# Entry
Amino acid sequence: MNMTSLYTILVVDDDENNLFTVKTLIKEYIDANVLIADTPKKALQELIKNPVDLIILDVQMKREMDGFELAKIIKERKKTEHIPIVFLTGAYIGEDFKKRGFEIGAVDYLTKPIDDFLLINRINVYLKLIEKERKTNILLQKQTKELKRAKEMSEAANEAKNIFFANISHEFKTPLNILLGSSQMIKYYLENDKFFNKEKIKSNVKTQVQNCYRLVRLVNNLLDITKMDSGNFTLNLSNCNIIDVVESVTLSVVELAASKNIEVTFDTNVEELNFCCDLDAIERIVLNLLSNAIKFTPNGGNIFVNVKVLDKLIQISVKDSGIGIPKDKQQVIFQRFKQVDNLFTRSCEGSGIGLNLVKSLVEMHGGNVQLKSEYQKGSEFIVEIPIREGSSENITQEYSMNNSSTVIKKIDIEFSDIYF
# Structure
C-alpha cells in the first residue's frame, strides 16, 4: 500500500523507546510523514505548525498532563477537532477507561507491548477512511461550486426574464395605447360632424396600421425565437443572385431614409453571384440592419451598404454615421432582450430581439456577424456567410422588389418602430 507523503502521523509518548519503536514501524510499512513529540507541549506545537491526519497518543504520560487531558485540549480546538486519536496504553483497559477515552473523542485503543501487525493494520484502516473523507470533501466542494454556479445562472436567468417581461410589456403597451388613442380620435371625428376632418382620420388610420405592423413584428420575432430554441426553425434554401437581393432590399428603403434626410448608398465588387440561402432570412437580416442604421442615424447622416466576395465568403456590410455604441456596451448588443439603453431612458423603440435574431439566422447559414463601432462616430455591422451552391433540385429564383408586395409589407413591419 502506498500512502505516500499525502499523510502525516503524529506520535506522542514520553517514553523515547516507544517513540522510536512506533516511528520505525510506521516508516517501514507505511509511506507517511511521521512527527514525534515526547511532551504534551511539544505535541501542541507540532499541531500548530503542521497539518496532521492521525494522532497516536500514549494515555499514561507523566509530564505536564496525561493523554486524556491532552486529547481533550486537541478536541476543543477548532483546527484540530477533526483529527482521529488512537490511544496507546500499557494498563488494563476496563469499560470505564474506554468510556472516558471515547467520550473525549478517541477512535481506538492499542495496548503495550505494541503488536506490530495490529498497529500497522489499524493505521492503514484509518488512513483509508481519511482518504475516503478527503475524496468526499473534494466532491462536496465541487458540488458546492456547481450549486453556486447554478444559483448564479438561475439568478441571471431570472433577471433576464424580468427584463424580458418589462421590455415585452412596454413593447405591447406602447402600440396598444397608440391604437386606443387613435381609435378614440377617429370615433370623435366621426361622431362630431363639425370637427370631421378626412386628413386627420387618414393620419390616425396610418398610425393604427403602423402600430399593428409593430405588434405583428413583435409576435413574429417571439414565435421565431421560440422555434429556434426548440429546434423547429428550418431554412428554406434556394439559389438566387445574392447581389441583386441585397441591392433591391437596400434600394427599397432609400425613400424612407430620405424622409429623415439620410442618404443610403449601395456598392459591390461583383455584379452577380449564384448563392444558396434562405431568401426570406437574407431579406430579414438586411432589413433589420438597415432599420437599426436608420433608427440611430440623425438627420443628414449616411448609410453605406457594401457587398463583397472574399475568397469563399460573401460579406455584407451595413455602415452608418450614427450615434455609435460605447465599447463597454458592444458585448451585449447581440444578446436577447438586451439593449444599450435602459428601458426608461432609451431614445428609440425596440424589444432587444432583432439583432439576436440576425445573429441566429446568419449562424444557421454557417456564418457570423461582427460589430465595429465607435461612440458618436457610427457603427458597422459585417455579415460573413460561406459561399455554397444548392443541389440541382433547388430552384433558382429571379428576385425583384418591384413585383413583390410581400417584401414591401416586410419593410413596413420591420420599420414599424421608426416614426418618420
Remarks:
- The longest strand covers residues 302-310.
- The chain has eleven helices and 13 strands.
- Confidence is low (pLDDT under 50) at residues 342-347.
